[in-house]
Amino acid sequence: KTAEFYYVHFKCDQLPSSIGLTTSRVYHAPFNRQICDVFEDMIEETLRKQPLYERLCICKLFNLLTLLERGLLWANHPDKENFERIARAVQHMNKAYNSNSSLEDYANMCAMSKYHFLRLFEKMIGCTPMEYRNSIRLQHAADLLLEEKLSVEQISTMVGYSSASYFSSAFKQKYGLSPKQY
């Protein structure tokens, strides 16, 4: 195993105290590619010294501190395991939005009963799993309608609807226009 150590020293007297920066704070974090990328961007900006690089580095510093603080909050969150499970389901829905997975399939993916999965999903995401998946489907359909020269029926099938009329109804409910009008 290798360890990486990053050190940031900023001297800036004009930052408001309301942003919550504390001096001489040490953050211990597991490997996170996003955090490493921010550090590397800061180093590159400092070495290249293009116009306004200091301002950009300060923005990146806030980004970095936010990511570190978020990591600390997440590591100590009492419902972390359930959040991670639901996040896997959400990630799957975003990638395979056109699949016809059932509520039970998603629950099994998260090693939960379907009722527990449904309750946690609604609590964490703010809608049911099927509402979420349908929203993703309709967003993709809207993109396809603008970009492609495909029929409404072809697009409805591509995004996972088995019925073009049900797709059209759901689309109109969300966007206020029929797919053809859109």
List the SSEs and their pairings.
Layout: H1 33-48, H2 53-75, H3 80-95, H4 103-109, H5 114-125, H6 129-147, H7 152-158, H8 164-175
What does this structure look like?
With 182 residues, this protein is mainly α. Helices cover 62% and strands 0% of the residues. It contains eight helices and no strands. The protein has helices at 33-48, 53-75, 80-95, 103-109, 114-125, 129-147, 152-158, 164-175. Helix 7 (152-158) crosses helix 8. The longest helix is centred in the middle third of the chain and has 23 residues, at 53-75. The termini are far apart.
Structure, briefly:
With 182 residues, this protein is mostly helical. The protein has 8 helices and no strands.
Low-confidence stretches: none
Note the main sheet.
none
Instruction: Tell the overall outline.
Output: extended
Average residue-wise pLDDT: 84
Termini Cα gap: 54 Å
The Rg value, from CA coordinates, equals: 23 Å
Order of helices and strands: HHHHHHHH
- Structural category is mainly alpha
How many individual helices?
8
Q: Can you count the beta strands?
A: 0
Helix content: 55-70%
What is the strand content? Answer: under 5%
Which structural traits does this protein have?
mainly alpha
